[in-house]
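Box 3.1 A note on notation
Throughout this textbook, protein chains are presented in two layers. The first layer is the amino acid sequence; the second is a token string describing backbone geometry. Keep the layers aligned when reading.
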Amino acid sequence: MNILNDGYTLMHEHMTLDLSRIKQEEDCRLDCKEETIRECRQLYELGVRNIVDVTNTGMGQNVPYVEEVERRTGIRILQSAGYYKEPFFPKEVYTQSVEELAENMADQVLNGFKESSSKAALLGEIGTSAEAIRDSERKVLDAAVLAHKKTKVPIYTHTTKGVYAKEQAEYLVSQGVDPGKLVIGHVDLIGRIDYIRAVLRQGVFVGFDTIGKENYLLDEKRAALLYELDQEGLLAQVVLSMDITRKSGLRYKGGRGYMYLFTHFLPMLRDAGIQESHIRQMLVDNPQRIFS
């Protein structure tokens, strides 16, 4: 059984988000519902039928808000259970045990969110910092392992600019996470083909999921990396997305918007020599395998 609709899947997005309290930036409060709905309707016209929303507890998760976006656009939006990273953790991460945190996550998958009958479809985005994997972050990783074993749903991680991607993959797989249900996020940002190969050797999926964020890495470089992976037959382990987290990322504020991946980045991949069937693999087949 597969919970995804037929069509393209964006594997790492946020329909709503609020990191403004910590970041002290109003732009980090993604609460522009009508503009989000408008862009999602345009995505539907481009063939997008699923969006994985990795906003979780501590990130301003708003389940009814996302349900309305889903209802008004016709796109299936999968919501997440979990905790993000320092300094965005809620108090319970520090006061509860690993087992209690795991039970919180599993409960949202098996029984649904408190404010809705909807159920979480994955554990994400589970993150680590750039400087170190902090004790609290390790605690959440361990809780995600337990919740994954109980629920069998995928885990989608956050790496800070790709740092600790290899360590995340090695640790989670060693703890019994099914590599076919594990996506290591933001691996494109590391920008090094040798490192990306090392992550992929663990049998996991990687997210090239910051498409359009050229302040971190030029999209031409992302396209070149994907071409190299394609030549080695490794696109079967890659998923795509944009990870828009700010109002300024949407078109009404002058940003590139969600459509950019389809209107600008996919043409780059085609120009680089990546076949249409391999583009479909990243946007359709691989997500279907992860959620099957």
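The chain has eleven helices and eleven strands. The radius of gyration is 17 Å.
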